[in-house]
Amino acid sequence: MKIQFKCMVILSLFLSGVMALGQDEGEKLFKQVCVACHTINDGKLVGPDLAGVHLRRSEEWLLKFIRSSQSVVQTGDPVAVALFEEFNKIPMPDNAFTEDQIRKIIAYIASNSPGGPGAAGTGGVSPATGKFSNQSLQGDASNGEKLFTGNVRLSNGGPSCISCHNVKNDKVITGGILAKDLTDVYTRLTAAGVQAIIGNPPFPAMSQAYPGKSLQAQEISDITAFLKLTDDIKKNQEGTNYGLTLLLSGLCGAVVLLLIFKGIHSRSKRGSINQHIYDRQLKSI
Amino acid sequence: MDVRAQVSMVFHLDKCIGCHTCSIACKNIWTDRKGAEYMWWNNVETKPGTGYPTKWEDQDIYKGGWQKKNGELKLRGAGKMRGLVNIFHNPHLPVIDDYYEPFTYKYLDLIESPAMNDQPTARPVSLITGKPIDIKMGPNWDDDLGGTPDYARNDPNLQGLTAAEQEAMFQLERMAFFYLPRICNHCLNPACVASCPSGAIYKRGEDGVVLINQDVCRAWRMCVTACPYKKSYFNWGTGKSEKCILCYPRLESGQAPACMHSCVGRIRYLGVMLYDADKIESTVAGSKNDQDLAQRQRDMLLDPFDPEVIQAAKENGVADSTLKAAQDSPVFKFVKLWGLALPLHAEFGTLPMLFYVPPLLPVMASLSEVDNDEHAKNMDPVAKHWNDNWLYDTSTEELWATIDKARLPLKYLANMFSCGDESKVKDVLKKLMAVRIYRRWKTVGDIDETKAMAVLNDVDLAPETIEDIYYLTSLAKFDDRFVIPAAHREQAIEMLEFTGDAKGSAGFGVTEKPRRGW
Q1: Record: contact B97-A277, CB cut-off 8 A
Q2: Please, which of A156, B235, B434, B513 could form a disulfide with A213 given CB 3.0 to 4.6 Å?
């Protein structure tokens, strides 16, 4: 009996250890990647609440969708298209997970969904529970503007937002056109979504830009406050996003300048006077 | 009357042998420096030819000199308004290839080369970049290796000649050339002085030498554009412009300028000319007809024997020694008294004070076919026997016919020396020829006296004058050719400072501790 009991204990410890490992990797990946846009049983964020998603969708569909959501949308899958439409056409970035990793993430979601074994204690998984909510925005918009434009460096050395993003705000010079215009991002994603994306960038280019340089919590809320302000006042702004116009006017200006220079130089002597004599002599050799 | 003295020059082109000794003398003294390698303050050109820098006479290219606009005299390519507009970009400057890229040879390679199958060669290297180059040009490429027809046919002075006349000039049997040595003309109406935005260029009061103050020059290079003779050069090493200084340190110590002193053909004469500075503007701008500019310039020069002139000169502070030099001046004789010397391109309007006696020889000679056999029979069998039957004929059966049949068309010489007025050049050539005919009667005797005297009557010269011309042309000694006035530097210094201030601080009785250590 004693031996039996001991064997049971050892076996259960072993099994729970193995299970915990799988559980751990799924949790790690979820909190690293998915949590920027998704919660489990804590409401919609940028993307849908994933509680019970393993019941709603087949595993095959989930595998395809998590790997590359856009390709599923493009196949015309009605569920995928409906989701894409519902969530403001913000594409979910592709993920380079293995099948095994995705299964582990799904397992983690399953275990934290209502009725799952982990759900009871936590009461839902969200980016950082309680921290990012639409109500508790304590950011300083003017400091956020400085951080956005790079007048104040981000404390961990990440690049300023303006290098890739533009906003329609007269206080701010035109930003980059590499990434999306963030003027109305606050409306689209709400505070929680904005903060989640800044805090844990899910987009490949953005996450590449901030490896180990993640923003401080205060910086995140400052920038979010600035984006909220920008969104609020966007109707009153002139808008300095020249885009293609800037490029074209630059080209036109260059052409005009070149013509002026040509005019100025039109009377100039070009080259040496004796070149034709020298050329003729070379030809006759 | 504002009488001033000008040290001026005459170059007798019939005597120039094109040896370039003058250029070398000048180069060794003044321009053998970094940044000045391409400069030839004195250069010798072959005419017809393009000159140095290439086609410098063509002001449509270089925009040098003066032009009249609404009766007013304006600089063509520089000046106040135009200079300001172009001050940071001077559009008509000659580039280095218009001169030539200065070069030397790697002579050391000849000595230090290791033993090999082939002889070592000294490759040409640029004096600007230090890298090996293909030599394109030299200061007188027409003459050296360049192939004259290419250059001669591009001579700007050929304009106004018909195509047939030009073609005739380049026929092998008629081909002729002469040399044109050039230095700064030290003009009376210098365009370089007028163009300088910094006021760095000035014409010395006592002798009229035009100089560039190296401390004031700001490298605008307007003088390079403005000088129609292209005798102001930009030193790319120091960033200042430089030009011929007429060897003023030598002049002040009574020596002839180096180019003149070294002249092998003794073609150069230097002396003082008096001129009326009040007439400068009216001389250049006064007349509508540009063809008589050379004559009007001659009229502006004054006779140093005229008592009125002497009086006015003294009132103006011209020293007695300078007046004496002006009376003895060979330039006065050639230019004013005998009317033999003409300015080069007077139409540029700068009143150049370097005058040229135009060349007679290529004009006068003609070619005729003769039979040399009789002559050859008398020669020693080992003697060199010329079997061509052309005679380079300078005989004078008809008095002036050869001038009209000149190998160099008169129009060509007139374009250079008398603003295109052929009669003026013809006058001078007739006088020169009269001297020859007269002297031929005297020394060779194959011309009879009546003919010689008829010639003198024709050009209205007395036999004594002819002898004088002959003397100054052929026999003149050093002191006849160069009459250099005392510089009177002491007077110049006293105008600026009181020499008594320095009394007792130099000479005997003054001891100064030697400077030791460092």
Answers
A1: no
A2: A156
